[in-house]
Design a protein that fits this description.
With about 575 residues, this protein is an alpha+beta fold. It has 14 helices and 31 strands. It binds adenosine-5'-triphosphate and magnesium ion (MG).
Length: about 575
């Protein structure tokens, strides 16, 4: 490809609208342009990278026996009613009517459509295992689309669905897909971790997320420093240490103290001269709309809403507003406490079970209670693991250290079991002729998000440093002066030879200063740059520069081809 013919509008300045580096660089490198919130056009360079990732995904999906198909984006409401998701899915589901007033939605995912497809086709256990996938645009009306391709409203996803006779067979399929996912992200040149993930309201069955490690990641993951345990913090259990199991005897009497205007944990602990770990905060939440729940958490700990949701078995959980807090507790926000909350369900974090002589809100303005003890001063509530794991906690598997890291969720695999097949009547006849529901799995990869994550992880102050397997071109040839016929002749020849070898090469034939060309080559992140210039005239030599290391070598013109081949093969084993 000739640069002068390529639609590649690069930008010198960082666009104001972009917050994270991948978004900035994708705009600057002319990969994407925004149409409206969460809607992007892929320009030729961006599309090339997307296709690279898709190619890797296809190869690895096909390798484990998954077959590609393509399903419609517009999906009828009836199917979503069958799975009971038409009402439940929330506002991300864009619902609309056609000219006949029939209801439809834009597919945010395809469980309903695929289950509808196979229920008409899979009849017997002999038709399985079956694994089908597509690479397709999805639409989710995200509340906060941001970070460019990272969280779009329209985005490209690879979604696969597996169909097995029983859970044992599903385990085998799931294991294969787990390996395939690891290979995909390895081949993309990414530093990633598979982590245990929350299964949401479906509950019970396994799920893993594939996280690309990056500071800007929206997800927090708990990794063990000793074993290979890694989990989304949403799910990571907190293990109670053996020496914390026996509660101490109460040392103090309960006493109400004045704490005028001291609402936050920090304010109260400074005012009373005690550590935040002596305080118990009382949070008032509303479950599934209107059921109040008082939640008790140690002052220095953080509530884990996903764990709490699971414990309560509810779909939705929101913090009560000031008005509701007043109504439920009788106290202004900041002074709520569990005393006298007789008609409200109270759930306390498990580590409060052994606490003695703690401090709580007194349920009246400007007052707290100190020296509080379970049983004596207030009834023992329900205890459960409902807080976020912290680096002070032990690894739930081996007891080693816990480190919190940020990650970008690029893939998610999930054992669905029979949720959809049961609801939608997708069954088969087993070897003994009995009718049974098909056991399903689903497996997603955000293709655009993977590209964004690759950039988030691989860049420097000059621009993108693409891993070779996903780079839009592997080599760029930069002749320093296009008016010099010797230089151009050599550059053209190299260009032809590289292209002949199947190497993706971009010839920067623009009438630009070398500085401009080098800057653009660095910005768009092409792994190897061949400079044809002064050295050619003097010694018939060219320079090959590696984008990642900044190292350059000088080789004779005849050796350039061989050097590039070697460099590429060592970068793409
Ligand atoms: P998130 O928690 O980030 O909203 P999700 O858990 O809802 O994602 P899944 O339903 O598991 O997403 O979708 C599979 C994959 O699709 C995700 O792992 C992610 O890579 C990608 N994905 C999901 N939502 C978006 C989006 N709005 N923009 C780009 N990619 C997305
Ligand atoms: Mg997910």
């Amino acid at each position: 490809m000739r640069y002068s013919r390529l639609f590649l509008p690069t930008l010198k300045e960082n666009p104001a609208e972009a917050e994270v580096v991948s978004h900035k660089l994708m705009l600057r490198a002319g990969m994407i342009r925004k149409l409206a919130s969460g809607l992007y056009s892929y320009l030729p360079l961006g599309l090339r990278i997307l296709r690279k990732v898709e190619k890797i995904i296809r190869e690895e999906m096909n390798r484990v026996g998954a077959q590609e198909l393509l399903m419609p984006m517009v999906q009828p409401a009836e199917l979503w009613r069958e799975s009971d998701r038409w009402e439940r899915y929330g506002k991300e589901l864009l619902r609309f009517k056609d000219r006949h007033h029939r209801e439809f939605c834009l597919g945010p995912t395809h469980e309903e459509v695929i289950t509808d497809l196979v229920r008409g086709e899979i009849r017997s256990y002999r038709d399985m295992p079956l694994n089908l996938y597509q690479i397709k645009t999805k639409f989710r009306d995200e509340i906060r689309p941001r970070f460019g391709l990272m969280r779009g409203r329209e985005f490209i996803m690879k979604d696969a669905y597996s169909f097995d006779c029983d859970y044992e067979a599903l385990d085998t399929t799931y294991g294969k897909m787990h390996k395939a996912y690891s290979r995909i992200f390895e081949r993309c040149g990414l530093d990633f971790r598979p982590v245990e993930a929350d299964t949401g309201s479906i509950g019970g069955e396994a799920s893993h997320e594939f996280m690309v490690l990056a500071e800007t990641g929206e997800d927090l993951i708990a990794c063990c420093t000793e074993c290979n345990y890694a989990a989304n913090v949403e799910l990571a259990p907190v293990r109670v240490l053996a020496d914390k199991v026996e509660p101490l005897e109460p040392g103090w009497d309960m006493e109400k103290v004045n704490t005028p205007g001291k609402r936050s944990i920090e304010e109260v602990s400074i005012f009373l001269g005690i550590g935040p770990d002596t305080l118990v905060k009382t949070l008032i939440l509303l479950a599934d709309g209107d059921e109040p729940v008082a939640v008790l958490i140690r002052g220095d700990h953080e509530l884990n809403e996903v764990k709490l949701k699971r414990f309560l078995g509810v779909e939705e959980l929101v913090f009560a507003d000031d008005e509701a807090v007043r109504l439920i507790t009788g106290a202004p926000p900041g002074f709520a406490g569990p005393v006298g909350l007789d008609s409200v369900r109270i759930v306390a974090d498990q580590c409060l079970e052994t606490m003695t002589d703690f401090v709580i809100g007194a349920n009246e303005a400007d007052a707290h209670c100190v020296g509080v003890n379970w049983g004596r001063d207030l009834p023992r509530p329900e205890f459960a693991d409902i807080r976020v794991i912290s680096p002070e906690d032990p690894c739930p598997v081996c007891g080693g250290g816990i480190e919190l890291r940020r990650g970008i969720e690029v893939g998610h695999i999930f054992k669905l079991g029979i949720k959809y097949s049961e609801a939608m009547g997708a069954s088969f006849l087993d070897a003994r002729g009995r009718k049974r529901p098909i056991v399903m799995g689903c497996y997603g990869i955000g293709v655009g998000r993977t590209v964004a994550a690759a950039i988030e992880q691989n860049h420097d102050e000059n621009g993108i440093v693409f891993p070779v397997p996903v780079a839009p071109f592997q080599v760029i040839i930069s002749p320093v002066n296009v008016k010099d016929s010797d230089i151009m002749e050599a550059a053209e020849k190299l260009y032809g030879q590289l292209a002949e070898l199947g190497i993706e090469v971009l010839l920067d034939d623009r009438r630009e200063r070398p500085g401009v060309k080098f800057k653009d080559a660095d910005l768009i992140g092409i792994p190897f740059r061949i400079t044809v210039g002064r050295r050619l005239k003097e010694k018939n030599e060219v320079e090959i520069k590696t984008r990642k290391t900044g190292d350059s070598i000088v080789v004779s013109r005849d050796k350039a081809l061989e050097s590039i081949r070697e460099m590429l093969s060592s970068a793409c084993p």
